[in-house]
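[recover] target loaded
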């Protein structure tokens, strides 16, 4: 049995969980999430907690812990929400929110507009170099952050581009013959 899967999920106040077969719906102050799980895994919903149980069968131990983690992420998402912060490095690189879209100037000949999927919001710092992606679905927040980072990933020489806040960008040395190679 999975150690993670054995832990009960404590439901905070204001969270309502309904079960329909192998689908689970979690409603909270920030929104609502629905997900269906493997029918072999038994999910029991009490008033104050959720328990995940699985029979002893090959391959179900991993799904046991995964199911519990996914349900816990649903509960945390509808109560607190998830946030992923990104930074923009480069001269003239910036981001701003127009309506609900994120508009970025990233050194291309045109500005890049990213329209968020349902449930995602963008918050841009007043410096226009730091912005965050917020939402209730942890997977969707990470996916949107990854897609935005892939528009202009950080390059290894000057570090220009979009990177996660706190991410260490590996830097390379420039050309070896740059200083005095032509002076003979």
């Amino acid at each position: 049995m999975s150690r993670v899967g054995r832990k009960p999920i404590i439901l905070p106040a204001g969270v309502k969980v309904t079960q329909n077969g192998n689908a689970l719906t979690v409603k909270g102050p920030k929104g609502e999430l629905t997900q269906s799980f493997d029918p072999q895994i038994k999910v029991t919903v009490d008033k104050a907690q959720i328990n995940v149980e699985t029979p002893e069968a090959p391959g179900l131990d991993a799904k046991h812990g995964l199911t519990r983690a996914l349900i816990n992420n649903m509960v945390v998402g509808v109560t607190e929400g998830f946030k992923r912060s990104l930074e923009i490095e480069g001269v003239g690189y910036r981001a701003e929110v127009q309506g609900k879209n994120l508009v970025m100037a990233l050194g291309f000949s045109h500005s890049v507009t990213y329209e968020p999927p349902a449930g995602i919001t963008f918050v841009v710092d007043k410096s226009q170099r730091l912005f965050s992606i917020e939402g209730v679905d942890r997977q969707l927040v990470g996916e949107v952050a990854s897609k935005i980072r892939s528009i202009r990933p950080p390059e290894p020489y000057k570090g220009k581009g979009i990177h996660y806040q706190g991410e260490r960008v590996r830097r390379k040395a420039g050309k070896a013959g740059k200083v005095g190679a032509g002076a003979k």
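[recover] notes: The two ends are 72 Å apart (CA to CA).
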